[in-house]
Structure to design on (1324 residues):
């Protein structure tokens, strides 16, 4: 305890003295220190840090060997090095693809763009360090005609976003942090800032967009000719109002009047109408992602911050407005400027956050303080985050030593895996990555269209962990998997070490070694099952289920 | 006699403000009797400009009526279980007798034996009852059906009666002993649609030679609203086996609610749908009809005049469908129900 | 004014609690103190309020059930029968409920606005307050939320229906997915209720103890916000496993099944009774396909007796078990059916005047509210919208809709239509 306090004091002093041109991660720490509201937790242990940064940046817990290596490394700079290593890894693009897909598609499925096409597109974008504004621009503007950006049309066309209302709400919510649901019918009565004109301003950008298929049933998100302004009316008023395309706080785009027959830049062709000269969705892509559109940048920074810190600077994430200010307003504005200055470089932003001591704080409470007094927005203590279904699947496969086998099993062309068939006993447990991911998404993800922000465990999920055959299979000795390896080991301390390293990414203490020893002694007659049970207990524990 | 179905002509239509379920032509062709939703006995005098009279008769619906073979009496029955016997002819008809509770639940059908000495009734209580036609005295109760009994037909042998139920079971009864001699299978006319029993043998008739029993209804409904294919199952009387499954040539959705056999060798079925009514003419042994006659409203009961030259068909629904559908549809500010009609066809 | 989402406001605290109160299959909240009471606790049960909600989807005809008009223009073929209430008659298709009308109540003068299923099914079950631009919760989600955790350890809102099951989060509307319905498709139990092969009760206990020990170590010196929620789901899962027979259709007794009619609907109603007995707050039973645009009378002949028998049986069982006095039983559809009988002998959709059945705790037994005209075409006198029904149900459950409102991320929302009030004559 004394040690912790000392570190804490040193920190506080450092943070208050340094200012000006200090590194961004230090600015972050200064800001959180100023508003912590009480004692802060010490720095996370190496093990705690490693597990967290692996989960956040690569979506999977570290392999036991990586943990051992990191714990043994005496380089004082090893945390920063690891952060850079992970950001440069292939797993980072995959992790970002998973994050961005869940955030933007909200587990909506569709058939226009296949998972493979979408995944390749998003992973490619992150692998190439595509700036966030460009990425969003492509999502908004893609119409399907350009092979490279074609998968981006999934954002609008797959999974129930075919209505202009849904498109409008989702653009506002996901890219501006504005939940404009109420504003569809009237000015939001609780949030003055959210006006009905905002809703229809965005709507006006989108209402010409339309899905159309060509002769070979290939779908495109075309735009038809925009003729006039959008008319709307509040349910509380009889007055008709009009707006052209307009983003909140920004000027209205004039709808140009063309002579009849002169509206198109390219004539109708192959059953498609002509390509209009005025294409509001293209303008939306430009205007929305403009560097001076602070709502857009703020929303982006806030969402990436949330990803790392478990709590948005503004929370809920879709209620960014004056009366719901950021917990650290100056920090948010600083990060917004910095993100723009660094050309919307997501990797840069995540790196700065990861380097901060605010990120690297322990989740262990400082002293005997009342846990209820620790507000998540104080960042005094690391906020625990639930593992996403993807993080859980990857980590369970790795921990149980089945990842390599499953990753090497090709997806059968005939596989028609569905969760429904599986839970109803019509299908065996999946053995390839694609189907395993589908199963976990169905079992642990939210339903389509519902954002995954809070940790919402359910009894069905617990029943899955308790009784489903998949995890059970993974904990049955086979081909050098975890339990197979452990059955060949006789020393119970070494078993305990391996178990804790692979599952919780840390070494066991004496108490825990004793727990393992005692359990194995009690279940001598069924040793391999007992090893499986031990692993199960660790893998279903809160310590595993949470990223802390 | 011979008829040419294509020459079937609509001779006249009599209308009434309430829906009509059943009809009978008097043997002399002078009177057309009808009954339906209002429980009254209606009589149109055809040679007096279709003069319409109606008489208090029943409660509930009157869905079924039958003429005594000698043409002098008419038996009517209602959904509350009452059967009455009426004289046929001019003047105010006076009930000869009434059976108050022939069935305690929905009475589905009354029919008369070829010799005229017996009438039979059936109902939702799973029972078939046989009464004397002279006094309406209960003679026999035939028990064995496990579901609502919807249709009846006497055989000319004087001792056989057939009855068909909701589940498509057809029973052959020995009238002298009250025993069920055999069961015939028309279960194609039944479908369990989710939790609901759908269909049943809605109507049945023998051919003139009594070699075949035709059972009508519908098959394969896809909703809890009789949305199936109109179907008649022809059962070979001797073997009890299905001889032919008769359905319309042109697509049609809805039940067949009555069948009559024309001695010229046609089975005529009456169809009911939201698009109106149809008469189908099948040649025995053929799966598809030879001819069809469309009508503006959907059909219920049929009656073939004993000379074979006229066919009456009770119908109901609203003409043109203007008053139907969901919600508050008012006609001149009034909530008006649908009307009924009886279409009289000339067969030649 | 401070926005509710800024720190320390009471509304904020409420939202946290809301999140914690992830019931449904989602973790429930008894706060830091852990689970309040063991399942089946007598005391808890006595204090508990429960609801059996019977949804006759597609719309049952009021004329062939609660509001017969025999022998009139639109009355149809059926007779009516005398009930235990002098002067009150039901369709002959409901002989059993007729015998129990002294314990039940009817509203005969419902009047709602939607005449299509797509328009009506959701609003009627959501109570349809004025359009707030947010999806309102279905009654089951609303009641789960408003009554809170009643300590049964079981999910508060379970829906039994033909077809597929799962977790129907959409029911919860703006309350958030956790208030959705655990749906037992075809009455089948939730997946993974049985311990895997080879895991005996003893082994299961041992592995759970291990798990507990691992957790204890982790929870030292950590905030328990998320881990408590997570642990609660394990407790609910274990309660469900321990009461596996509760979800096992094979455990339903032949005699009971027969008493409930031997039908699929009867089986679901019997399962509902068992879930209520076990302490589930809100059980919904759906019976589909009442949309009888053709052959209305034969269809009702098949359907209404199924309702009559199962509803009567459940009323008897709840009464016998002393549960009826705290359980509201509601039977309704999205609207009624037209008095007019169409050309297909069907009845169409009719929101103008229709009936619902209600009884149990907080509801005055043996009353008939409202009346339709002699021909059953329109209401004769006061009429009630679905908002009135929600007010009434909430009141019967001891919730005051005038003093209770939802907090939707800081947006206060009424729990029932603000232009309506409870149907006074219905409240005990």
């Amino acid at each position: 305890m004394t040690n912790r306090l000392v570190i804490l004091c040193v920190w506080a002093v450092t943070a208050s003295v340094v200012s000006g041109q200090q590194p961004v991660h230090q600015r972050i720490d200064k800001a959180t220190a100023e508003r912590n509201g009480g004692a802060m937790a010490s720095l996370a242990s190496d093990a705690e840090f490693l597990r967290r940064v692996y989960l956040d940046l690569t979506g999977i817990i570290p392999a036991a060997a990586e943990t051992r290596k990191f714990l043994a490394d005496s380089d004082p700079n090893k945390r920063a090095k690891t952060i850079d290593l992970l950001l440069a890894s292939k797993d980072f693009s995959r992790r970002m693809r998973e994050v961005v897909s869940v955030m933007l598609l909200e587990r909506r499925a569709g058939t226009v763009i296949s998972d493979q096409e979408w995944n390749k597109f998003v992973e490619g974008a992150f692998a190439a360090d595509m700036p966030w504004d460009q990425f969003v621009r492509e999502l908004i503007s893609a119409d399907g005609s350009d092979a490279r950006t074609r998968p981006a049309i999934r954002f609008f066309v797959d999974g129930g976003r075919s209505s202009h209302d849904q498109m409008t709400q989702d653009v506002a919510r996901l890219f501006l942090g504005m939940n404009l649901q109420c504003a569809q019918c009237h000015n939001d009565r609780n949030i003055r800032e959210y006006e009905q004109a905002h809703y229809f301003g965005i709507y006006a950008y989108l209402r010409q967009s339309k899905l159309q298929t060509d002769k070979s049933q290939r779908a495109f998100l075309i735009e038809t000719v925009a003729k006039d302004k959008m008319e709307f009316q509040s349910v509380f008023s009889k007055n008709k109002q009009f707006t052209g395309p307009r983003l909140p706080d920004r000027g209205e785009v004039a709808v140009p009047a063309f002579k009849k027959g002169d509206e198109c830049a390219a004539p109708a062709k192959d059953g498609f109408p002509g390509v209009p000269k005025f294409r509001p969705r293209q303008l939306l892509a430009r205007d929305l992602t403009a560097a001076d559109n602070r709502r857009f940048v703020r929303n982006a920074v806030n969402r990436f911050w949330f990803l790392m810190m478990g709590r948005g600077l503004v929370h809920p994430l879709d209620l960014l407005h004056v009366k719901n200010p950021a917990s650290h307003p100056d920090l948010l504005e600083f990060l917004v400027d910095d993100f723009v200055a660094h050309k919307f470089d997501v990797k840069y932003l995540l790196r700065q956050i990861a380097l901060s001591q605010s990120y690297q704080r322990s989740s262990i409470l400082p002293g005997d303080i009342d846990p209820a007094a620790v507000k998540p927005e104080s960042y005094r203590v690391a906020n625990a985050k639930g593992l996403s279904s993807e993080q859980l699947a990857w980590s369970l496969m790795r921990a149980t030593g089945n990842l390599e086998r499953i990753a090497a099993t090709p997806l059968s062309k005939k596989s028609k895996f569905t969760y429904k068939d599986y839970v109803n006993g019509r299908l065996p447990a999946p053995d390839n990555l694609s189907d395993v991911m589908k199963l976990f998404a169905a079992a642990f993800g939210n339903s389509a269209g519902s954002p995954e922000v809070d940790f919402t465990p359910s009894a069905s999920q617990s029943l899955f962990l308790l009784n489903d055959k998949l995890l059970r299979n993974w904990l049955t000795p086979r081909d050098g998997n975890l339990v197979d390896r452990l059955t060949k080991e006789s020393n119970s301390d070494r078993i305990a070490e391996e178990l804790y390293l692979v599952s919780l990414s840390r070494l066991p203490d004496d108490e825990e070694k004793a727990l393992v020893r005692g359990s194995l002694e009690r279940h001598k007659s069924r040793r391999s099952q007992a090893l499986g049970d031990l692993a199960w207990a660790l893998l279903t524990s809160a310590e595993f289920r949470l990223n802390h | 006699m011979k008829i040419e179905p294509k020459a079937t002509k609509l001779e006249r239509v009599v209308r009434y403000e309430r829906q009509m379920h059943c009809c009978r032509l008097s043997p002399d062709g002078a009177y057309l009797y009808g009954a339906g939703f209002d429980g009254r006995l209606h009589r149109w005098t055809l040679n007096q400009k279709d003069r319409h009279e109606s008489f208090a008769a029943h409660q509930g619906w009157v869905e079924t009526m039958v003429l005594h073979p000698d043409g002098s009496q008419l038996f009517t029955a209602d959904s509350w279980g009452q059967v009455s016997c009426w004289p046929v002819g001019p003047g105010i008809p006076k009930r000869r007798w009434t059976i108050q509770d022939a069935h305690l639940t929905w009475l589905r059908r009354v029919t008369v034996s070829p010799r005229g000495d017996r009438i039979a009734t059936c109902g939702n209580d799973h029972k078939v009852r046989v009464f004397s036609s002279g006094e309406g005295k209960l003679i026999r109760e035939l028990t064995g059906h496990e579901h609502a009994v919807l249709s009846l037909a006497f055989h000319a042998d004087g001792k056989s009666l057939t009855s068909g139920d909701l589940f498509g079971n057809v029973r052959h009864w020995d009238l002298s002993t009250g025993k069920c001699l055999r069961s015939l299978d028309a279960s194609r006319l039944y479908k369990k649609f989710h939790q609901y029993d759908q269909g049943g043998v809605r109507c049945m008739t023998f051919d003139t030679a009594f070699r075949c029993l035709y059972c009508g209804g519908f098959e394969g409904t896809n909703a809890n609203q009789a949305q199936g294919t109109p179907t008649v199952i022809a059962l070979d009387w001797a073997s009890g086996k299905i001889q032919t499954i008769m359905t319309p040539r042109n697509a049609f959705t809805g039940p067949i609610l009555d069948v009559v056999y024309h001695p010229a060798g046609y089975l005529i079925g009456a169809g009911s749908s939201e698009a109106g009514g149809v008469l189908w003419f099948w040649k025995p042994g053929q799966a598809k009809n030879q001819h069809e006659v469309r009508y503006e409203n959907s059909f219920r009961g049929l009656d073939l005049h004993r000379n074979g030259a006229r066919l009456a068909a009770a119908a109901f629904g609203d003409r043109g469908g203007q008053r139907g559908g969901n919600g508050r549809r008012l006609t001149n500010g009034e909530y008006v129900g649908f009307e009924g009609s009886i279409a009289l066809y000339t067969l030649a | 004014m401070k926005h509710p989402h800024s720190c320390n406001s009471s509304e904020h605290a409420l939202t946290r609690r809301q999140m914690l109160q992830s019931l449904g299959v989602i973790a429930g909240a008894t706060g830091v103190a852990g689970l309040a009471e063991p399942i089946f606790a007598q005391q808890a049960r006595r204090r508990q309020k429960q609801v059996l909600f019977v949804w006759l989807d597609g719309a049952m005809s009021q004329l062939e059930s609660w509001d017969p008009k025999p022998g009139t223009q639109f009355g149809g073929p059926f007779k009516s029968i005398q009930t235990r209430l002098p002067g009150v008659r039901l369709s002959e298709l409901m002989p059993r409920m007729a015998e129990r009308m002294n314990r039940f109540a009817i509203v005969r003068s419902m009047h709602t606005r939607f005449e299509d299923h797509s328009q009506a099914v959701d609003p009627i079950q959501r109570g349809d307050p004025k359009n707030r631009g947010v999806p309102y919760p279905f009654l089951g989600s609303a009641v789960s939320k408003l009554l809170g955790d009643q300590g049964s350890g079981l999910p508060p809102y379970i829906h039994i229906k033909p077809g597929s099951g799962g977790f129907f989060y959409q029911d919860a509307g703006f309350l958030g997915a956790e208030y959705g319905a655990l749906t037992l498709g075809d009455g089948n139990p939730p997946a993974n209720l049985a311990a895997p092969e080879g895991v005996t009760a003893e082994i299961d206990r041992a592995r759970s103890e291990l798990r507990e020990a691992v957790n204890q170590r982790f929870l030292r010196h950590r905030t328990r916000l998320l881990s408590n929620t997570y642990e609660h789901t394990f407790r609910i899962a274990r309660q469900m496993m321990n009461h596996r027979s509760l979800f096992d259709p094979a455990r339903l007794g032949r005699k009971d099944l027969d008493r409930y009619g031997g039908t699929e609907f009867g089986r679901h109603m019997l399962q509902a009774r068992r879930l209520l007995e076990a302490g589930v707050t809100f059980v919904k039973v759906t019976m589909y396909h009442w949309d009888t645009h053709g052959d209305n009378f034969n269809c009702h002949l098949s359907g209404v007796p199924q309702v009559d028998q199962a509803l009567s049986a459940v009323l008897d069982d709840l009464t016998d078990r002393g549960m009826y006095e705290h359980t509201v039983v509601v039977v309704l559809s999205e609207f009624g059916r037209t008095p007019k009988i169409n050309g297909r002998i069907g009845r169409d959709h009719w929101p103008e005047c229709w009936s619902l059945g209600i009884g149990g705790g907080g509801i005055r037994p043996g009353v008939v509210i409202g009346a339709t005209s002699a021909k059953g075409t329109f209401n004769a006198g006061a009429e009630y919208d679905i908002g009135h029904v929600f007010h009434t149900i909430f009141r019967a459950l001891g919730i005051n809709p005038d003093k209770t409102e939802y907090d939707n991320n800081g947006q206060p929302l009424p729990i029932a239509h603000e232009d309506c009030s409870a149907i006074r004559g219905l409240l005990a």
